[in-house]
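Typical record was shown:
=====
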Amino acid sequence: MRATDWEFRNRAWLFGLVCAVSFPLYAVDSSNATAALANSLFPIFEPTVARALFAGAAAVAPVSFGRKSGR
């Protein structure tokens, strides 16, 4: 997916907005999203499922860094 010119020019403001909204939400609910998902999927195996989800995310992350943006 390619960013529009507006998104590219204002990317610092967009990143700042995401951080400004997400960090205060930790005060509302401090549970980790991956741990909550693992607990809702398999409550008995929650630590193992959480590790598997984190491992999957770590395996997919290098793919996103290898793509060329085209700019």
Q: What stands out?
A: Residues 1-30 form one domain. The chain has two domains: 1-30, 31-71. The chain has four helices and no strands.
